[in-house]
Amino acid sequence: MVRWSIENTGACSWRWMAENCDQLTADERRVLEFNRSHGVTAGYSISFKDISPRSKGAIGLVAKAGMTQDEVDELWKTSGRDILVMNQIAHLRISTLPFIGPKTLTPRQREVLEWVGEGKTTQDIATILGVSLATVEKHLRLAREMLEAETTAQAVLKASFQNQIFVLET
Question: What's the order of all strands across the beta sheet hosting 10-13?
């Protein structure tokens, strides 16, 4: 179902695996057997559309122990739309949470990258912030290093994808 989730958007019954068993790789078959050995045999996968084709969000919904895929599919017929909506709302909320990790930008680095994202030049930013051009360039250099970006444009993109810039402060 991971492969299905990467290649698709929406919801899919785990019946897909049974119907496409001949297309599963050896590794995928091993995962399927591992899951079966732990009673994970029926469910649905939901794959979400993301802002970048290089990122993907998905969730596997595992059925209660003892339920068959037929029972899960019947449940999905009556409640699938509601389940899908609730999971999409959760995904949207989770995907907008600010990044918190070992490589977090300082408030000033965020501010400078946000101004770049707004189309301001380094001279514009220096004037807006009341600092020297060298100070702005230092913040940009440190932000690029922190984000492991080669260019400032790449740093703005990475910071945006990680929800480190344009974040409403609480």
Answer: 10-13, 43-48, 57-62
